[in-house]
Amino acid sequence: MSINFLQGRWIYKVRVRKGNALDVTEQELMKRAKEGQQDALEQIFRYHIDSAIRLAYLITRNWATAEDAVQEAFLQVFRSLASFQDDRPFKPWFTKIVVNKAKRTKDRLDRGYLPYDMEEVNPHRIYSPEEHALDKEGVDALFQAINELDDIHRLPLLLKYVSGLTEAEIAETLGIPASRVKSRLYVARQRLKKRTELEGGGRDDDV
Question: Which CATH architecture has domain 123-199?
Fold first, then answer.
């Protein structure tokens, strides 16, 4: 993905590539970015690009729309450098931007329903290994069930198992109490479990 940042008369073209672990904290990179070190911002973007697009896709259900939303999110990060608080956790702040941009982009473009890419998210992260293993039919049933959840319960689930946020971070991202996050995750898991069990005709207790 290529992102153009316009600042005054200068245009910075950032080639965002996949991967690369961070060797310093995101807060430190944001401080460096404030000081004009463009490579610091690129490191942050490279680190978060995959999960950001995946999350945006699961909200918009369209790859082009998801990439547009993530590009807008990165642009907002760039524009918000001066106001970013150095001691603020970056991930929930950035995830909230991605979620909002994905919702707005979806509403604006109104692309309609597109099915999930079953290979994009690991379904085994939804349930712990101790609960059960899913076969191919179970995967299909699971993602159909996720798709049919209302946003109130689907979004916390995606933030936890796709974005890897803690319940406290989800609460900060969505602006709701952590207790409500816990409750919504519980309801979402129960609905998914019930739906996939019904679709699969029930599972053996020892699976």
Answer: Orthogonal Bundle (1.10)
Give me the half-sphere count of Cα atoms (radius 13 Å) on the Cβ side of residue 143.
20
What stretch(es) of the chain map to CATH 1.10.10.10? 123-199
Spatial separation of the C-alpha atoms in residues 185 and 177, rounded to whole Å: 13
Residue tagged 């590009």 (tokens)? 71
Q: pLDDT tens, position by position, for the chain (207 residues)?
A: 555 544 433 334 444 444 456 778 888 888 898 888 888 888 888 888 888 998 998 888 788 888 889 999 999 998 898 888 888 888 899 999 999 999 888 777 664 444 444 444 444 444 444 344 445 555 566 667 787 888 899 999 989 988 889 999 999 999 999 999 999 999 999 988 887 676 655 544 443
Task: Report yes or no on whether pTM surpasses 0.70.
Answer: no
Distances in whole angstroms, Cα of residue 31 to Cα of each of 35, 70, 92, 98: 7, 22, 17, 21
Start and end residues for every CATH 1.10.1740.10 domain found in the chain: 2-109
| Strand residue runs (E) in 57-190 | none
> What is 2-109's CATH number?
1.10.1740.10
